[in-house]
Amino acid sequence: RTDMPHVEQIKHMVNFHLFKWFNSDVPYKIEQQTVGWTPRLDGSLLIEHELLVQDSVVARMVLGVRNTIVSRLREQVSYKLNKLWGMNVELKIWVRPLKQRLSLKDRGLGPPK
Fold first, then answer.
1. Is the Cβ–Cβ distance between 42 and 87 less than 8 Å?
2. For residue 74, what pLDDT is reported?
3. Are 53 and 101 in contact (CB under 8 A)?
4. Separation of alpha carbons 90 and 55, rounded Å
5. What pLDDT band is residue 91 in, cutting at 50, 70 and 90?
6. 18-74 per-position pLDDT tens digit
7. DSSP letters for 79-94
8. What is the distance between the terminal CA atoms of the chain, rounded to a whole angstrom?
9. Strand, coil or helix: what is 69?
10. Distance in angstroms (rounded) separating the CA atoms of residues 47 and 34
11. How far is it, in rounded angstroms, from Cα 57 to Cα 35?
């Protein structure tokens, strides 16, 4: 148990996984905010959480191929929150780039195949 507010617990758990999965400075460039908190009639909780990244290239890195990384993040944080709070928690995570940018590959400047 912890005495941190629930929103801070979510940020802490998301940060833990981001630092575990990404090296270099990527996790430092990600801002987070909880944008929705909806108790449901069945006693469960729906939390909507947003990751703000500097641009679309970083957003694609955080999402992963076919959203695999953000899906795994959602599953693992939801599981930990279920255990910690003793209730069913559904976590939805959105990744929002602050600006659009083409990668070198998208511009046709990447390494030859």
1. no
2. 97
3. no
4. 27
5. very high
6. 999 997 788 998 999 999 999 999 999 999 999 999 999 899 999 999 999 999 999
7. HHHHHHHTS-EEEEEE
8. 51
9. helix
10. 7
11. 23
Q: Tokens 């970083």 identify what position?
A: 58
Q: How far apart are CA 39 and CA 4, in angstroms?
A: 19
Q: What pTM does this model have?
A: 0.83
CA-wise closest residue to 70 among 30, 100, 28: 30
Q: What is the DSSP letter of 50?
A: E
Q: Does residue 106 have a pLDDT over 70?
A: no
DSSP H or E stretch at residue 28: none
The beta strand positions in 14-69, using DSSP E, are: 31-39, 45-53
Mean pLDDT on 85-113: 81
